[in-house]
Amino acid sequence: MWQRQNFNYSQVARPKTFGQESSISPSRIKRGSPRAAQWEDIMSLKRLRLDRWTGQLLSSKARPCCLRQRQIQKSTASIRSQSTSASPDIIFEDEELDLGDQAPELDTSQLPSPPPEAALSSAKLAALHARLSLPKKLPLQTLSRALVDVSADSSTSFNNASLAQIGRTLLSYHVTEWLITTYPRLPMTVLFSALAAYAGPATLTKIASEWGVESAAYPGAEVDPGLLQFSKLKPGTKTSVGTSTRPDQSFYRRGISSRVVYDDEFGEVVAKVDVVDERSTQDAHASFVRALIGSVYLHAGSKAAKSFITNHILSRHLSLDQLFHLKHATRDLSRLCAREDFEYPVARLLSETGRMSRHPVFVVGIFSGNEKLGEGTGPSLDEARTRAAISALKAWYLYSPTAGQTGRLPSDVAEGGDWKPLHIDMGEII
Q1: Which of 127, 222, 237, 300 is the most buried (most CB within 10 A)?
Q2: How far is Cα 133 from Cα 129, in angstroms, rounded to an integer?
Q3: What are the backbone angles phi and psi of residue 147, rounded to the nearest 5°?
Q4: What is the Cα–Cα distance from 38 to 194, expressed in whole angstroms?
Q5: How far apart are the first and last CA of the chain?
């Protein structure tokens, strides 16, 4: 049934060794056949070089893990180092591999503010440091950070928000301490106004401009670190104050006692305002001055910060007598004399001229017994009497136990000195 057929085995293609060529042309092999698959296996083995495999496996040094390297490069793209902190190195699979201090380079052009190392090459920053006679302990990197507003860089590790908070607390404390110690009888309304005149945003903006601080047109990594960087508020933009933090805003009147408890150091309402992307020039300059005070405190100590506030803030002249606004001067003076057991104040005409003319002038003095409390001039007797009462009240409120000299302050005790209370006032008249 079955017939044996003579088959010529010489026509069958036999696989050769790796160094020999096959006698079958690839064009004569039909695709999809078992012979075609055999041909592809032979050609793939010829293309592989086993010496490379052995070189990689038997090498004493291992290559870096590509997957980890890519992950670290992605993570370091969003990481910035503060001051002199180094970037993380690449993690290798073999600990014996040592490629030196080769860290992935960071593209600083995408940063919202200049990198800290750029402060070392800024001429404006070095000039500002020398102009203000800042302590040598204060590095240029921290001074550069004080010039970056929160609207320019939202990262709390690179803006001046935390430094400004510390500086604001120190500035309010030392100015209030000096005012109360030097003028212990100041009314609270006048104390609020005096504190705003010394440490308010308008005053700090003027101080920053006198220091020679210039602002950049727009913040960015390419900006000189010696320029104040903030996103400027567009003209005509309405700023929302927000709701107040006072719990009694809709039930009680806003008196002096509640202003002391609930309001800020200037007696103004504390508003709930979210972080804005744009700020006014006044707020940005005031934030820089406060941040600079906080930087001096952190690097040089409380004594250097107090000396800086005394030299740059409290050294400015302020006419406190112009901050008074007395509506009922004669009534207040009468109650003051009754509280202090003085004789009832009496107004007496001291001199006059041109009573029958168009522009008369009267000089009236306020006396308590034989002691003259105040004196005032005016075109009428009532006006002169009122000005005399105002003069007497100002002389009472502006009493200073230091008599214009630099007295000891309570904060001097922390520096090893002694302090003795000079005067304790009984409080306001009304």
Answers
A1: 300
A2: 6
A3: -90, 0
A4: 97
A5: 137
- Between the alpha carbon of residue 290 and those of residues 45, 141, 221, 273, 295, the distances in Å are 74, 17, 23, 19, 9
- Could you tell me the two tokens for 98? 């040592």
Give CA angle at 174 (171, 178), nearest 5°. 135
Order of all β-strands in the sheet with 346-353: 346-353, 361-368, 371-378
SS3 (DSSP) at 359: coil
| HSE-up of residue 270 (Cα within 13 Å, Cβ side) | 12
CB 125 within 8 A of CB 117: no
Would you place residue 255 in the very low, low, confident or very high pLDDT band (cuts 50, 70, 90)?
confident
User: Which pTM value belongs to this model?
Assistant: 0.71
* Residue 10: per-residue pLDDT: 47
Radius of gyration of the chain (CA): 41
Dist. CA 109–CA 372, nearest whole Å: 72
Instruction: Please give the full DSSP string across 312-336, using - where no structure is assigned.
Output: HTTTS---GGGG---S-HHHHHHHH
